């Protein structure tokens, strides 16, 4: 007698994911507030996708950890804007001439051997040993900003802390005198946010650009008259010795002033928002300050302020991880998508302050690895440790849905972070 097995229940086939558009638009509030669901879809569909930015620029976006790591170390991909083709140049060269030629020849837009020659002028100022020796001074700056906050909340932690602390630290590191540092307008940093020639905001954009360019000229003139043993003075001397061109000097100061401040300001806000969304982790970090170094690495991985890298270009049509990319089209690496790749990070959407190892790509990789990484790490440790210690009961004072994420193409952060706290210690 044959005993028949009961039939297995029918298994409903998984619905096929909706195909991604081509190009994939990287626009809109839902995307800026939480890009990670879209990045997950893109990773699952493949490592390289054509994307569309709000300015109308199209590019090839690299997602996934392995593909991103390889692209950041790919000798075929150059950074110099001269490699861009006419299609890219028609929309992406947003900064007008002559400012584009005068301010865009910094390290982020150079290839070896020029990149190697220019980078050696800045590395000594940002060594981990030097940064660690300045930690007590950085702590003084952080405490002074906390002292100026209201005794009890509410307060805006961007206006009251995050917008100022990174620039004050930067001024100490590069030798920007206090009287000049006090005249720096943070609004000038918005010149890295694309505003097309027909945009209604173009006149304001160009006014910011001219203001920043005039400020850089004042910095150079001051350092030429008041030389000291600091980074800015050494850059001016290198120009006078013809080791740097005037455009290289101005561009490197431009990069220091903008890239050295705004990303850290934004990273403080993204880290705090992540902790506010995980109050148990916030409480643990407050109670276990020795966890700060590892926690900062996880917060950098979990939601990086440098969401996307700047442009890279192939100098001839070539294959990029199975996708044919034309010469001169822009290739951009999604650092945030790489840092949430489950093939590299177990439970990548979980905030694990003890995660180890944690080889995130928040500072890039390869020859363009951020020279200020040690400084940024120290700033974040001091900022978070000071805020959590001196503002007990720190919490978000608005609903999560009311956070206004900046519309920057490459970065993540918010210009306002209203918080409450019990009292200021």
What does the model show?
This protein is of the alpha+beta class. The chain has a single domain, classed as Cytochrome P450 (Cytochrome p450), CATH 1.10.630. 44% of the residues lie in helices and 8% in strands. The protein has 19 helices and 11 strands. The chain has a 6-stranded mixed sheet. A 3-stranded antiparallel sheet has the order 5-11-10. The chain has a two-stranded antiparallel sheet with strand order 7-8. A hairpin with a 5-residue loop joins β2 and β3. The mean pLDDT is 92. It holds the Pfam family p450. It comes from Streptomyces albospinus. This is Cytochrome P450 hydroxylase. Keywords: Heme, Iron, Metal-binding, Monooxygenase, Oxidoreductase. Belongs to the cytochrome P450 family.
Label the CATH architecture: Orthogonal Bundle
Do you know the CATH topology?
Cytochrome p450
The CATH superfamily turns out to be Cytochrome P450
Structural class: alpha+beta
SSE order in H/E notation? EHHEEHEHHHHHEHHHHHHHHHEEEEHHEE
Largest β-sheet summary: 6 strands, mixed
**Domains (count):** 1
Family: Belongs to the cytochrome P450 family.
Protein name: Cytochrome P450 hydroxylase
Pfam families: p450 (PF00067)
Keywords: Heme, Iron, Metal-binding, Monooxygenase, Oxidoreductase
Q: How do you describe this structure in short?
A:
The chain has helices spanning 29-33, 36-45, 65-72, 86-92, 99-103, 114-119, 128-133, 135-147, 157-162, 165-174, 178-181, 202-225, 231-240, 246-259, 262-277, 279-287, 292-302, 335-339, 373-390, and strands spanning 24-25, 48-52, 58-62, 77-78, 155-156, 312-314, 318-320, 323-325, 330-333, 395-396, 418-420. It has 425 residues and is an alpha+beta fold. The protein has one domain (24-420): Cytochrome P450 (Cytochrome p450, Orthogonal Bundle), CATH 1.10.630.
């Amino acid at each position: 007698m044959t005993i028949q097995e009961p039939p297995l229940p029918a298994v409903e086939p998984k619905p096929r994911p909706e195909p991604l558009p081509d190009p994939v638009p990287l626009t809109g509030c839902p995307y800026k507030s939480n890009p990670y669901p879209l990045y997950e879809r893109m990773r699952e569909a493949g490592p390289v996708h054509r994307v569309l930015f709000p300015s109308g620029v199209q590019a090839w976006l690299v997602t996934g950890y392995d593909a991103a790591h390889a692209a950041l170390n790919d000798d075929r991909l150059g950074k110099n804007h001269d490699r861009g083709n006419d299609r890219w140049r028609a929309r992406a060269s947003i900064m007008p001439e002559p400012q584009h030629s005068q301010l865009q020849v910094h390290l982020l837009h150079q290839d070896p051997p020029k990149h190697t020659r220019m980078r050696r002028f800045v590395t000594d100022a940002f060594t981990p040993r030097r940064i660690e020796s300045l930690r007590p001074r950085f702590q003084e700056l952080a405490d002074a900003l906390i002292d100026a906050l209201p005794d009890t909340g509410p307060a805006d932690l961007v206006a009251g802390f995050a917008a100022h602390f990174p620039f004050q630290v930067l001024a100490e590191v590069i030798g920007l005198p206090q009287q000049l540092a006090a005249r720096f307008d943070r609004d000038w940093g918005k010149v890295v946010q694309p505003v097309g020639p027909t945009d209604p905001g173009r006149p304001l954009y160009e006014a910011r650009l001219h203001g920043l360019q005039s400020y850089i000229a004042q910095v150079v003139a001051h350092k030429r008259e008041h030389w000291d043993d600091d980074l800015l003075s050494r850059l001016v001397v290198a120009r006078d010795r013809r080791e740097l061109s005037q455009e290289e000097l101005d561009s490197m100061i431009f990069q220091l002033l903008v890239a050295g401040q705004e990303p850290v300001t934004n990273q403080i806000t993204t880290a705090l928002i992540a902790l506010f969304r995980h109050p148990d982790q916030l409480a643990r970090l407050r109670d276990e300050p020795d966890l700060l170094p590892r926690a900062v690495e996880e917060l950098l991985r979990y939601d990086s302020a440098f969401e996307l890298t700047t442009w890279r270009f192939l100098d001839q049509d070539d294959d990029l991880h199975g996708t044919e990319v034309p010469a001169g089209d822009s290739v951009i690496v999604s650092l945030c998508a790489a840092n949430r790749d489950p093939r590299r990070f177990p439970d990548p959407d979980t905030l694990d302050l003890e995660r180890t190892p944690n080889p995130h790509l928040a500072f890039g990789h390869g020859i363009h690895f951020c020279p200020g990484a040690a400084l940024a790490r120290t700033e974040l440790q001091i900022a978070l440790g000071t805020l959590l210690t001196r503002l007990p009961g720190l919490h978000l004072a608005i609903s999560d849905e009311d956070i206004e994420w900046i519309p920057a193409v490459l970065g993540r952060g918010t210009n306002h972070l209203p918080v409450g706290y019990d009292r200021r210690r």
